[in-house]
Amino acid sequence: MGRIAGRFGRVEPRRRARALVLGLLSDLPRKNCWTLAEHAGDANPYGLQHLLSRARWDADAVRDDLRGFVVEHLHHQDAVLVVDETGDLKKGTHTVGVQRQYTGTAGRIENSQVAVYLAYSTPLGHAAIDRELYVPRSWTQDAGRCRAAGIPDTVAFATKPALAARMIGRALDAGVIASWVTGDEVYGGNPHLRTDLETRGIGYVLAVACGHRLATRAGKFRADALVKKLPKQAWQKLSAGAGAKGQRFYDWALADIAGEGPGHHQLLVRRNRRTRELAFYRCYSATRVPLSTLVRVAGRRWTVEEIFQSGKGLAGLDEHQVRGWTSWHRWVTLAMLAHAFLTVVRADEHAPHPRSDELIPLTCNEIQRLFTALVVGPGHSPAHRLDWSQWRRRHQARSQASHYRRQATQA
């Protein structure tokens, strides 16, 4: 918290931010302004709501501090930047960016809010270092709706790959050293993102669909048609990295393709050794690299899924109950900071302690339990809990009466 203290001009929001982050690191079953305020010892949630909506501080500046914190502690020569989006299911239509759209969280089209994240992934650990909220055209074409949600007038519609390119550029311009970028088909199929990375001289291993068309010396082919031309000896058994149940072994093959600019352009193919299912990656590198390097980068893409899982499960990344543009950015940034703290502590604990055959290394889950029990300390008095019970019931009674009055008026 000392790293971001200077971003707050007054001591009150600084203390509120600390209380919010401590609440996000707690073992509360639900994390929103009500539960976090009760955990912090406040009499009501108005202070935390003020911190997220009206207090004067810059969430983007805190994001820059967060990025520096993560890179400083997890820095490694094999660093990879990973881009991916995640969705949060929402009700209603007033929450910023919400519409019926596909989200991998539900695996179908749902009323949801989608955001794109940039992760910094190294052998020491991985954490999110940037975020961009996806604002659909249905919002950007409705000025009144955007104004009501607090979206700045300068915000225009941008695709998810464009948001990813924006975050990657910010990280590289800030001095983050990474030789590779990886992501799923949403990003691999976008030529503008690929061109931007090639212009910067950054290698990429980006997933593409089986129907993605590739140029070769013999003409253009679909990815699934090109793989059929590979000889049997082109396949090699390699691990994409360690998983929960051991090394993740697949068969891999590589084929040269044509690119519009200099450098080496290739199609990487992954084949499941049991189901024979295929996955395709479009690759670029300024100089030729071995197959094992491309496989390692492709395997790093899954770390962003671990970030989403632990960030939501441990730090309340998806539990925000805020509607506005400013509130969303502030909540998500502080949740990313809470998760980054767990990741950095985990990396610091692994470094000096040799691996034991009797114990697995400390996980973020276990670090959160120990931190909550040993550092944060015991809860509050029974009187505080009873006061909050009365506050909740009183607030809910007013809300219920308001709903009934509105219903009667409409009828």
Automatic annotation (TrEMBL):
It comes from the Bacteria. Pfam families: DDE_5. InterPro entries: IS701-like, IS701-like_DDE_dom, RNaseH-like_sf. Residues 8-214 form the Transposase IS701-like DDE domain. NCBIfam families: transpos_IS701 (NF033540). PANTHER family: TRANSPOSASE. This is IS701 family transposase.
